[in-house]
Amino acid sequence: MFGPPQTISRTDGGLNTAIGYRYVEDTLVSHADYVLRQNQIYSQAAYGRAGLWEIYGRLGVTDFKIFDAFRSASALTSTSKIHFDENWKFFGTLGAKAFYPVTAFFGAGVFAQASYNFSNFTDDVTGVTGTTPYMVDLKLRHVWDVNFGAALQATVPGGLRLYAGPYAYYRRADGDLSAAVFGLQGAMRDVSFKNKSAAGAFFGADIPLFKGFRLNIEGQYTDRFSCGSAVTYTY
User: Which residue of 37, 107, 177, 199 lies most exposed, with the fewest beta carbons within 10 A?
Assistant: First the structure.
């Protein structure tokens, strides 16, 4: 999640924290197109000045599923499953944002953030190619992404902030199959996956709750839809 362009730190500078969840779908390109799905849970700490600038860091866990990564393109090769699926691994995110208040109720902002997975994602598959049984694993290494974007924001009565804007991003994962298997096109040795779309749009609402708490709800669209929410607290 990118969050609203207007920062929520104290006016004279201060800390805010968050707990969030994000559901991710994207299309990865290698030898073909593959659908990526992730569930991410994270905590965040941020420091900045209200309505001006903010830097933030996140630590979380995520799963990683690539649909049809083990699908066989040959009638001579069978597979025990067709999807790559690995569960909770740690990731980290660093980001920064800046906001310019045009009026008391309208403004614009920019942001940049990058994420990196600290561990490899690994899944194995068994089957028969010809008359020979096999068991191999696919390891995804150096899984990372970077995002840059801008947004317009309007504040309506009650302190509700509505925002929307475009963003550009790049996602990358390097894969390696432990042994070459005829017909496994999506899981070839020394393969790289990257995002199919280079840009998208995001939109959301930042809702005041009580005593420093706020609820952020956000949607993102590239060629597929992602969404998430977070509860923030300003100290």
Answer: 199
Domain residue ranges of the chain, discontinuous segments joined by +:
14-234
β pairing state of 191-195 and 14-29 = antiparallel
Going by CATH, does the domain composed of 14-234 fall within 2.40.128.90?
Answer: yes
- Average pLDDT of the chain, as a whole number: 93
Tokens found for residue 227: 């969404």
**Measured distance CA(4)–CA(153) in Å, rounded:** 7
10 Å CB burial of residue 131 (0-12, 13-18, 19+) is exposed
Q: Which pairs count as long-range contacts for 175-178, CB under 8 Å and 24+ apart, including other chains?
A: 175/30, 175/138, 175/139, 175/140, 175/141, 176/138, 176/139, 176/141, 177/136, 177/137, 177/138, 178/136, 178/137, 178/138, 178/139
Per-residue pLDDT at 143 = 96
**Please, how many CA atoms are within 13 Å of residue 74, restricted to the half-sphere of its CB?**
12
The set of long-range contacts for 115-120, using a CB threshold of 8 Å and a minimum separation of 24, is: 115/58, 115/91, 115/144, 115/145, 115/146, 116/91, 116/92, 116/143, 116/144, 117/62, 117/89, 117/90, 117/91, 117/143, 117/144, 118/89, 118/90, 118/91, 118/92, 119/89, 119/90, 120/89
Q: How confident is the model at residue 186 (pLDDT cuts 50, 70, 90)?
A: low
CB 141 within 8 A of CB 172: no
